[in-house]
Specification:
Blueprint: H1 3-18, H2 21-50, E1 56-59, E2 71-72, E3 75-76, H3 83-86, E4 91-94, H4 101-114, E5 119-122, H5 127-139, H6 144-152, E6 158-161, H7 166-193, H8 214-223, H9 226-252, H10 255-259, H11 265-304, H12 317-344, H13 348-353, H14 355-367, H15 378-381, H16 386-396, H17 400-405, H18 407-430, H19 432-435, H20 444-453, H21 461-481, H22 488-514, H23 518-522, H24 529-556, H25 561-575, H26 579-606, H27 612-625, H28 630-650, H29 654-673, H30 682-687, E7 688-691, E8 694-697, H31 699-717, H32 727-731
Parallel strand pairs: 1-4, 1-5
Antiparallel strand pairs: 2-3, 5-6, 7-8
Helix pairs in contact: 1-11, 2-11, 5-6, 8-16, 9-11, 9-12, 9-14, 11-12, 11-18, 12-16, 12-18, 21-22, 21-26, 22-26, 24-28, 24-29, 24-31, 26-27, 26-29, 27-28, 28-29
């Protein structure tokens, strides 16, 4: 790769983008005017909502006590409502029909639904008399237990409102505050008449002392805002230039001219990538500056209007440097993803459609660090994007020691994801079928007819991805409606239905409908006996590593007590089940059904990408997501990579089923044998040790396991398994 060619492509692309007035407006003008306009509109809306009066109906005024008063003519009493809010709560006295409470309430209900009133307060009959009786007993020194029983007999006032109306909900909140203050006033009056000092009800006052320095408090406030804004606009700012640089050039017909130049494909991609990074970073920085200035101005305005807690002040000077440091890898990651997706698109219209899925994937990763429970740790630092955000937050807040401790994993994960994104973009530009694919024509009928008449021996990449997403969607809805098993029979029924109806059936139907050779699609080729032997050895030797990995994941991401109790309950059911049924249902059945799905249909379709490890990892990720607990998902993804490599090299699913069944059987068997006398056997103590975190392998077991896996891997590497099945020979293409 020649840097001069990259620079020439970069200069060309930047010059073309600067000629586009819409791009300049999006990158430069929009950030400078967006936030001041949004702030002005929000202030006006807030003033409108704050000044909007709400009508309240009051029923049963004859049952109100004289002291303390609740209403004063057509308003709540001044002692019970803030002066600036009193005019927003006009009270309408509704006369109660004598002896017909239900009719009065029904009339008020209808009036609230019609919008005549926003809320209503009902004072039950006898409220004042019962309250006065309690005061009399307290004044006479009645037994405290009898007085408490009498208090339970006092009828309670009720608030009527309509949750379907926003105004009604606002009115109910205002009225609830008034009635709470009225209740406190009644308590004080009761204490006064019973000659009990008020300090008896409030023996102490809470004193809140904020030990944070002004600088630290300001840094903590800004650290939750600035990194999120920076990354969200870096993502958005990268996508639109990328679409114009790739899909736009396809439409304008200038892409062929660029590809015919002396520059290599990699140089072209890096030129476009640097251009996208430039506009991504510029958009993020301008949005950040505009938002910061706007928030400072408006916070000072609120502080001047007796809201001192709203004052943010200037962000820390060092925050700018840390944000710019995080912006470089973030814009590289987002630009690589945007270039890859834009190169895949046939037109700018199709390219803009891809922005929504990318946002849906990235937004949860950006919102996760904003949770109060999310902090910088080894586990959080390994999460892409989220780890970078929380790492920058630590720097802005001044926790330098903690941030430096996790700098290496954050930078490795972010750099690795950025490298994969750039590699994907380069692969897209090197793939002629992607770069020059024609637009699809025709409607749903044409597409369906083409799908049925031109079936291949194995599914396409799109069909494989659709199958994986479909299984995840089915699992999601099954989890929402399924009840937790209470005994072994319930668990047996749930697992059987899940595996047969929700995993195997959809995959078999898609195999019959979308392909013309189930043997190749599902990998039903008979393996060599040596392949089955390798699968058995791998399953046995990989199990100690899986145990160690599971323990490491639980330490990095601690499991909640409730989730741990649920897993222990399910484990007890499995341990009490008959051994044969346990192995058939929990070991063999998932091995068959899940391998047909993930290493059969899905992996055979992903192999059409032409990248072995990409196909293996993607199918393993789908396999991991099928598990309901996060800790199981991570471990299952690792196991899925091993099984995927085994299938890829042997071109058969039977070794995968063997591996999967033995792996499940070992996990179930060790869980059952852990509480028996077998733990005293020398062989057991040589391989496993019992700790507070559960059963873990010994160091010698891990060393032996790694050695055997390396030997098995070398054996599989010699197999010509990375040759695709003879799909072209079967289809005649």
């Amino acid at each position: 790769m020649t840097l001069r060619n990259v620079g020439l492509v970069f200069a060309r692309e930047v010059r073309d983008q600067l000629r586009d007035r819409r791009m300049l407006f999006t990158v430069v003008v929009l950030p400078l005017v967006l936030y001041p306009l949004m702030g002005t509109v929000m202030v006006q809306v807030a003033q409108f909502l704050r000044d909007h009066p709400t009508r309240v109906c009051l029923i049963g005024t004859k049952d109100l006590p004289d002291e303390p008063p609740l209403v004063d003519r057509d308003r709540f009493h001044l002692d019970l409502v803030d002066a600036e809010e009193r005019h927003l709560l006009p009270v309408v006295i509704q006369p109660q029909q004598p002896g017909n409470i239900a009719a009065s309430l029904a009339e008020v209900d209808a009036a609230i639904r019609r919008g005549e009133y926003d809320a209503a307060v009902y004072i039950p009959p006898g409220f004042a008399e019962q309250l006065e009786e309690i005061r009399r007993r307290l004044a006479e020194g009645a037994d405290s237990q009898q007085a408490a029983l009498s208090l339970k007999s006092v009828p309670s006032p009720s608030i009527y409102f309509n949750t379907a109306s926003d105004r009604s909900q606002v009115a109910s909140q205002r009225v609830e505050r008034v009635l709470r203050r009225w209740r406190e006033a009644i308590v004080r009056e009761n204490l006064r008449k019973s000659r009990v000092p008020q300090v008896a009800a409030e023996p102490f006052q809470l004193q809140l002392t904020d030990v944070a320095e002004v600088r630290t408090r300001r840094a903590a406030q800004w650290s939750k805002i600035l990194p999120f804004v920076l990354l969200i606009w870096a993502l958005t700012g990268a996508f639109y230039p990328a679409v114009d640089l790739c899909a736009g050039e396809k439409e304008r017909g200038t892409l062929e001219t660029l590809l015919a130049s002396p520059a290599e494909r990699t140089e072209i991609v890096w030129g476009k990538l640097l251009t996208t990074m430039l506009f991504s970073s510029s958009t993020a920085v301008l949005h950040l500056v505009s938002l910061t200035i706007t928030m400072i101005v408006f916070s000072r305005q609120f502080a001047a209007q007796s809201h001192p807690t709203m004052a943010l002040g200037m962000p820390p000077v060092g925050a700018v440097g840390w944000l710019l440091l995080a912006l470089i890898p973030a814009s590289l990651l987002f630009s690589g993803l945007a270039i890859a997706l834009a190169a895949f698109a046939r037109s700018t219209k199709e390219g803009h459609y891809y922005l929504t899925p990318l946002l849906l994937v990235m937004l949860p990763l950006m919102l996760l660090p904003m949770s109060p429970a999310f902090s910088l740790s080894l586990g959080s630092s390994l999460i892409p994007v989220a780890g970078l955000l929380v790492w920058v937050r630590a720097f802005i807040e001044g926790h330098y020691g903690e941030a430096l401790r996790y700098a290496l994993p954050v930078l490795l994960v972010t750099g690795g994801c950025s490298w994969l994104a750039v590699r994907w973009a380069v692969d897209q530009f090197c793939n002629e079928n992607v770069l020059f694919r024609e637009g699809e024509r025709g409607g749903l009928r044409v597409w369906t007819r083409h799908l049925m008449q031109h079936r291949r021996a194995t599914p396409t990449v799109a069909e494989a991805l659709f199958a994986g997403v479909l299984l995840l969607v089915i699992r999601f809805f099954a989890m929402m409606f399924a009840a937790a098993p209470q005994q072994w029979d319930d668990l047996l029924r749930m697992v059987t239905i899940q595996q047969l109806a929700m995993v195997a059936t959809p995959i078999l139907l898609m195999t019959l409908i979308l392909t013309n050779n189930p043997i190749y699609t599902l990998g039903l080729k008979l393996p060599r006996p040596s392949d089955l032997l390798v699968a058995v050895v791998l399953a046995v030797t990989a199990h100690p590593i899986v145990l160690w990995l599971g323990s490491a994941v639980r330490q990095m991401f601690p499991m909640g007590d409730e989730l741990q109790a649920q897993l222990e309950s399910v484990g007890n059911m499995i341990n009490q089940a008959p051994l044969v049924w346990m192995l058939l249902t929990m070991a063999l059945l998932p091995a068959v059904c899940e391998e047909l799905a993930f290493r059969g249909f899905i992996l055979s379709g992903l192999r059409q990408m032409g990248h072995k490890w990409a196909a293996i990892v993607i199918s393993a990720i789908f396999f991991g997501w099928m598990h309901s607990v996060f800790h199981q998902q991570v471990v299952a993804t690792f196991v899925g990579i091993l099984i995927g490599y085994l299938v890829f090299q042997t071109n058969s699913i039977f070794p995968a089923v063997t591996f999967h069944a033995i792996h499940n059987g070992l996990a179930l068997g060790l869980s059952r044998w852990e509480s028996t006398q077998i733990i005293k056997q020398p062989l057991w103590q040589l391989l496993y040790r019992t700790t507070s975190d559960g059963l873990l392998p010994t160091t010698s077991a891990l060393v032996v396991a790694v050695g055997v896996i390396i030997v098995c891997g070398l054996y599989l590497y010699q197999r010509p398994g990375d040759v695709l099945p003879e799909a072209e020979a079967v289809t005649g293409t």
